[in-house]
Amino acid sequence: MMYTHKARRPVALAAGVAALALALTACSGSDEPSSSADGSTGGDSGEKITLTIQTFNEFGFADLYKEYMAEHPNITIKENKAATSEEAKTNVTTKIAAGSGLDDIVAADVDWMPTLVQYPDKFVDLASDTVTGRWPDWKTAAATSADGKLIGYGTDIGPEAICYRQDLFEKAGLPTDRDEVATLLGGADATWDDYFDVGKEFLKKAPAGTAWFDSAVATFQGMVNQIPNAYEESDGTPRATLDDNTDVKTMYNQVLTASADLSAHLPQWEADWTAGFQNGAFATMLCPAWMTTIIEGNAKGIDGWNIADVFPGGGGNWGGSYLLVPTQSKHQAEAKALADWLTAPEQGAKVFTTVGNFPSQLAAQQDSAVTSATNPFFNDAPTGQIFSNRAAAVTVTPFKGPNYFTIHKLVQDALNKVDLDGSATADEAWKSAASDYANLGL
Fold first, then answer.
1. What's the half-sphere exposure (Cβ side, CA atoms, 13 Å) at 281?
2. How far apart are CA 282 and CA 301, in angstroms?
3. C-beta separation of 151 from 143 below 8 A
4. By 3-state DSSP, what share of the chain in percent is helix, strand and coil, each rounded to 5?
5. Boundary of a domain, candidates 380, 406, 423
6. Which of 41-45, 50-54, 315-319, 374-378 has the lowest mean pLDDT?
7. Helices 426-440 and 10-26: crossing angle, nearest 10°?
8. How many other CB atoms are there within 10 angstroms of residue 326's CB atom?
9. Residue 431 is part of a domain; what is its CATH number?
10. Is the per-residue pLDDT at 16 higher than 50?
């Protein structure tokens, strides 16, 4: 999963990353999993232990923990859940640098996984015969260090569709059927211009106070994930200036031009955004599979939500996470066994049917429980088929190197200055971000 929210000061964030690098250079750690009490590394010694796992937002593991503990009565699992991805990142990087305090298993999302891959000695090598071929090559590659260690087991991915309020579409005189909406937005040839143009038509008859989408940052996230090398070359080299990639700047200007009329100007994950689901603040939003659970929770009692099997630009993936075992863990073998089990295809399918997180495991994606799934809240939308189709439509795997998270925050901050705060024009905010980028000294 990946959850974006309003950024803190980006330069301070970059300084924190630099401090982490220095601290990691200074501290040491074993990269060998600890043996169980009987001398094995099979992950179940029979000793009564507690395994802690840090996640963020909703991984859908609650029922799985109960199942695992029933099968392993000597193991107690305790989950520590961070509110957001950024909060989890701060906790993990701070405790890595400190050399202590990490949970036995930690979750990382795709945007900051590259930071952790730089320090493979801080994590257990998770490679084993049981996970060979479990995920697409690109998912495994993103968790593999330069020296060949697999430090993360993939949980979910985030194929994107468009979620929409069919009741608001009806009031605006637009089609409401999900197949007709997919066609309206451009079908297989859908573009971002199509999406924004339909938004303009919607606003002509839309209920007062209803915008087309929630925010510029949320919409930009789907756009930038269609660029192979947004901020870094494939070898991890950052671009000389923020202006070097004209595709990024073009998308930045495109979404801000649209947001002037079409955005509800609501920062994701904050109280006003959450309230917007109840008061009809926006009619559509970019919808990776994991977002369906967020919508259902925030829009409780609203029966107009649906999902169109379409996405501007053809396809896109927003988010996806991993489970890692830090070498700080005193129960590395048991933690590795639990992480293996939680990310097995059978569990991936269960998570999808429980909370909607689309599995990254290849076998799980073909599981009939996934492919036949429907969601009553979204007017019985065939979510399994829709998100399977959306996963197949993804043709670009954007490169996200060790500096991606920091650079992307600069652009998000610039977008928010225009769309949320109104404190700068698009040009002023971009110039400020470009200056901050130069000051990073990457």
1. 20
2. 16
3. yes
4. 45, 15, 40
5. 380
6. 41-45
7. 20
8. 24
9. 3.40.190.10
10. no
